[in-house]
Design goal:
nine-stranded mixed beta sheet, TIM Barrel, 34% helix, 9 strands, single chain
Length: 348
């Protein structure tokens, strides 16, 4: 089985979102919020039939509930391919009441949804009432009381790490306390230092100098030479091994062809990451004028800053290997105080 490591997919149903979280992986550049092409997904899975071990799919975006009907149909189609375990990631903006949350959840549970990951922290609650998250928790309680095997998992992101003392982290801790009081323990996670967050990390957290770990040593299965454990597919057709590192595009070739090239002839970005990790990308970028810092938050931070430079300044050489464009903003200078312009009052 060629793709024996491939156990899950992340399907980005569409990129529309009502929030502009400053730590998001994506920098939306246009208003084209068309949903993912379900026929494209069908064809992709058919092309690797019998070669993979995919058993689960997580739906994300954007905010997946903008594409609720597409998500329902997508689940129906995926089940025909033998995939029966589903989850989704949401900011909870759609759950204005327990009744609305329960109504949406009931249909998803009928189709086999097993878990819902809900964001609740100082980033998301800038625009989304915390009561919406509580509504989802209550709807989950009702579902379990009726015998459904379903979990609501609240994810709270901290800048750097949860004991790092800054205002956004203090607010996140207060939000987590309110979730706890509502009867659910929220899982603390940390902001990944790429996407917008590559420009949020304050200097005192950028202390790592060795930076020699490979992608799959940091995040299980990402860009592993033996095959990825998960890939994401977005509405533009990009199959991403990591955010902004496409393995190929389904509008141009089959998923089978994309994976064959991954093993046999990957492009320069994937090849460098597999052989030398983030330090290899640093070498590529420095040779082309990139001025590297002495240290970074982690390997992902260095990788993103080097890739961002290559995307902006060496697009003729590397542009096709660094997509989608929404993962790459114009190069920015780090702000000494990245939250100084934010209104952090009345977040919850």
């Amino acid at each position: 089985m060629t793709l024996k490591n491939l156990g899950s997919l992340s399907i980005l149903l569409g990129m529309k979102c009502n929030n502009k979280c400053p730590h998001c992986f994506y920098f939306p550049r246009n208003d084209n919020h068309m949903p993912i092409d379900l026929d494209m997904l069908d064809d992709a899975l058919k092309s690797i039939e019998g070669q993979h071990s995919i058993y689960s799919v997580n739906f994300a975006g954007g905010e997946p509930f903008y594409y609720y009907d597409v998500m329902l149909e997508c689940i129906e189609r995926l089940k025909r391919h033998g995939i029966n375990l589903f989850s989704l990631s949401t900011n909870g903006s759609w759950a204005g009441s327990v009744e609305v949350a329960h109504e949406k959840l009931t249909e998803l549970l009928r189709l086999g949804l097993g878990a819902m990951y809900v964001s609740a922290d100082g980033f998301h609650q800038m625009n989304i009432p915390l009561k919406n998250v509580i509504n989802i928790i209550r709807a989950g309680d009702i579902a379990r009381a009726s015998g459904e095997n379903f979990n609501v998992c609240v994810m709270s992101s901290y800048l750097g790490y949860y004991t790092y003392d800054c205002e956004i982290n203090r607010i996140t801790s207060k939000i987590r306390r309110k979730i706890w009081e509502a009867g659910l323990y929220p899982v603390e996670t940390f902001v990944n230092a790429h996407g917008r967050a590559a420009y949020l990390m304050p200097p005192e957290l950028q202390v790592n100098k060795r930076l020699d770990r490979k992608c799959w040593e940091i995040k299980i299965g990402i860009l592993n030479p033996a095959g990825p454990s998960m890939v994401s597919i977005d509405p533009a057709g990009f199959v991403d091994g990591c955010f902004g590192v496409p393995l190929g595009n389904l509008h141009k070739e089959s998923l089978n062809d994309i994976f064959q090239r991954y093993f046999n002839n990957p492009g320069p970005i994937v090849k460098t990451l597999r052989e030398k990790g983030a330090l290899g990308l640093k070498e590529l970028a420095v040779e082309r004028g990139f001025v590297a810092a002495e240290s970074y938050f982690d390997e992902c931070h260095l990788c993103h800053r080097a890739r961002n430079y290559l995307k902006e300044h060496c697009s003729d050489e590397f542009g096709e290997f660094l997509n989608p464009a929404a993962c790459y903003p114009p190069v920015l200078d780090n702000k000494a105080h990245p939250f100084e312009d934010w209104n952090l009052a009345q977040l919850y």
